Amino acid sequence: KTSIIHTKQRWIKNNKHTHTKTKMEDNNGTEVWDRTDDPYFVDKAWLDTIVVVGLTCFVLCLMKLSKVATSKMGMIFGMIGMTALVAGYWADEAYTYDDGRWLIAVSMAPGILLGLTSALSVEITSLPELVGAYNGFGGFAAALEAIALYVDPNAKNFLRGGHFIDEKTQAMLWVQAIALVLSIVIGMMTFTGSMIACLKLHGTIASKPRVIPYRSIITLLLFAAMVLFGTLSFTAGQDWNDRVLGLTFIIIVAFLASVYGVIAVMAIGGGDMPVSISFLNALSGMSTSAAGFMLSNEALVVSGAFICCSGIILTLVMCKNMNRSIIKVLVGGFGDGGGGSSSVKAKSEKVVGTVKEATAWDVFELLTNARKVIIVPGYGMAVAKAQHACAELACKLRAKDINVLFAIHPVAGRMPGHMNVLLAEAKVPYDITFGLDDINADFADTDVALVLGANDIVNPGAQTDADSPIAGMPVLEVWKATHTICMKRSLNVGYAGVDNPLFVNDNNMMFLGDAKTSLLKLISLLDEPSAHFSTPASSLFMGSGESMRDIEAPKPKRKTHQRVKSVDPFLARISELQSNAFLKVGVVREIADEFEARVAMTPDIAKRLLKSGIQVVLETSAGIGGGFLDGAYADVGCKILNSAQEVYDSAGVVIKIREPIMHPVGLKHEIEMMTAGSTLIAPVSPQTENGRILMDRAKEAGVNLLAVDAIPRISRAQNLDTLSSQSKIAGYRAVIEAAYIYQRFMNGEVTSAGSFGACKVLVIGAGVAGLAAIATA
Questions:
Q1: Based on the number of CB atoms within 10 Å of its own CB, is 456 exposed (0-12), middle (13-18) or buried (19 or more)?
Q2: How many helices (DSSP H) and strands (DSSP E) are in the chain?
Q3: Separation between Cα atoms, residue 405 and residue 432, nearest integer Å
């Protein structure tokens, strides 16, 4: 039973409204406040409810992310929780009020746009850089919050809707100050470290470790200076909202933390990025949690702790699987190429033996004769972007009743789970992918272990060579399989810098080359109707082996397998592909006063396009200058038309080598010969007067114009080979014609008629053409 004793009104400073609190007495006679009519109390209860819901979603997110099959649901829980927390705090007057609420909403828009754009545009192989960047931005946000709070005039007070409620106690302010300094130090360290990690992963900065002299002493001095200036920010006359000397000290702390982040991560080798990414992830969570203490925000404290703890656990797992000490990680002393000293590396066993190289046919025979195949993907698969080809190979082998499994090493690739993400993106079934501990015992009864771009994670030296830098590192025991095939670009060592004895094992063959190209060769063999053979695969390893050879020895004359010559299955599908084509691409004969040896489309490309649902229509004799007769195009499904006008009428896209001009037969401009809504891909020179005329003409005709010579100079543009090849030819031609016109010698000549000195050449502009001119001269 309670009875109301009295009512007390409390006027809040600078506020026209009053909040009534009723003082009550409980059954034990203890005085309590009845706050059911207090708006602050009611709003806080609703906010706490939302916080509980949001954090519960985060817990469910982590639980679901523990399994690949449920990871998508885990991401959905995470998004629900984050949305709920952002909406709750945005609506609560303790954080936003008046116009600030809409200003914050508007300020979130660029972040939302950047998040969506980056997630949709970044390729799956570049996910490590994206994750690293997100870690860095999280730390940067925490540091900016801390700096903003330091210069906040109301940093010492509790506010509600922008109005004063109460002052914070001295203990609260000290906790807030310590959390503020930690947010700046950890946040800026995470930001700069993550940016360096991203640049290393992207290849902008060399991946090898760069250790500055006296690193330990410099690290100690940096942390001592951060503690000193952080303390001075709140002592010796400085206090909250000191925008002169105090703010200067805070900026110095941020700068020193940034410097340490760069120094620490520059000392890490590119191969150790999985550990660094997981550790930086933990640091971003730590800075978030510190920001939560600083802002008295429970959700930030707990969610930051989730990130920090999960990152630390993942770091420990990574260290274990890379045979590293967590102490070395924390002081930034890891990543020197293997974890061991140079003296230890010098003592490691030198691998001696004969490396045997296999052809695509050898690998094809081994795979199709096998009952069980385990594929081990590595960083080479990611570099070659071969995950889809790998998935297709596995699918075709499984269609032949071959048991195909995938073995994933925890540190394969450039971030934890890198291979899992790539295989999931390629739609590899979850139930055939296994971790190191789950699948290592299976290699003993496996017919073929196919190592795809991996090196150190399958190195038997980790178990047999006690002096190896990777000694003790858990590895996938592929050498226990009946046969192993290593697909690599070359015989170079991995990031640990040690030789791999697997390469010279008696049961191993090297299938050298680009991973994607090599896989496509195997897939094409599997696609052939005559995908059968008479020679047992096990015979490949008997005696000297006709299909095996020493890579360094001269190539012996190879005995060819007796194979039935098969008809290309594409020929039987031409009619079907033509009827299912969704787009027609036209190629017309180029109009030129001089002989034109170039052609806009070769038969091989036309064949590939038809397989993709694109039909090529060709003006008769369009490829004659390049040596391609009409029959070569007809054989791959191209439709040969009698005139350019027929091509323009039937094609949705037309491709040309030269700029469109007046057609001498149709007496119309080539752009005007096209149908409205169609597209012309050709050189246009849009910066020139003639280019602007062409653009105006295309606009009037309703034709889309794509200028191949105006594409930005990126790697994608170089694939077109329009600008580079023609510029090189122009560079060669300029020097040769100049030598002819001016009758000069490039090199000095001494003849019976006298001596001739070498001419002087001035090359203006060192672009593609200029460099070709320099080389020619």
A1: buried
A2: 27, 19
A3: 5
CA pair distance 215, 331, nearest whole angstrom? 10
pLDDT of 444-463, one tens digit each? 999 999 999 888 889 888 88
Catalytic residue among 272, 442, 456, 499: 456
Token pair, residue 185, equals: 């130090």
Cα–Cα dist 330/321, whole Å: 17
Beta strand pairing status for 163-167 and 614-619? unpaired
**Nearest C-alpha neighbor of 382 from the set 352, 425, 334:** 425
Dihedral sign, Cα of residue 469, residue 472, residue 476, residue 480: positive
CA distances from 255 to 184, 199, 261, 424 (A): 9, 20, 10, 41
151 exposed, middle or buried (CB, 10 Å; 0-12, 13-18, 19+)?
middle
Query: Angle 551-553-559 (CA atoms, 0-180°, nearest 5)?
Result: 85
Euclidean distance between CA atoms 448 and 441, whole angstroms: 14
Instruction: Count Cβ atoms within 10 A of the Cβ of residue 76 and give its class: 0-12 exposed, 13-18 middle, 19 or more buried.
Output: middle
Q: Is 502 within 8 Å of 459 (Cβ atoms)?
A: yes
Element (H, E) at 483: strand 483-488
Distance CA 156, CA 239 (A): 10
Q: Which of 17, 9, 20 is nearest to 164 (CA)?
A: 17
215-232 vs 170-202: helix crossing angle, rounded to 10:
140
- DSSP H helices, 539-688, are 569-572, 574-580, 603-611, 630-634, 644-650
Which pLDDT value is given to residue 536? 39
pTM for the whole thing? 0.57
Q: Which of 245, 282, 290, 243 is nearest to 143 (CA)?
A: 290
745 vs 427, 713, 741, 754, 756, CA distance in Å? 62, 35, 11, 13, 7
Contact partners, residue 266, CB within 8 Å, separation at least 6? 196, 205, 209, 210, 211, 212
456 carries an active-site annotation? yes
* Secondary structure of residue 385 in the 3-state scheme: coil
CB 168 within 8 A of CB 176: yes
Question: What residues have CB less than 8 Å from 293, skipping those under 6 apart?
Answer: 175, 176, 179, 301
Residue 260, burial from CB neighbour count under 10 angstroms (0-12, 13-18, 19+): buried
How many Cα atoms within 13 Å fall on the side-chain side of residue 247?
Answer: 12
Strands 163-167, 157-160: parallel, antiparallel or unpaired by DSSP?
antiparallel
CA 445: distance to chain centroid? Answer: 35
- For the CA atoms of 142, 147, 153, 155, the dihedral, rounded to the nearest 10 degrees, stands at 40
Tens digits of per-residue pLDDT, 689-722? 999 999 999 999 999 999 988 877 666 656 665 6
Please name every residue paired with 32 in a beta bridge, in sequence order, or none if there are none: 24
Q: Which of 139-148, 407-416, 514-523 shows the highest mean pLDDT?
A: 139-148
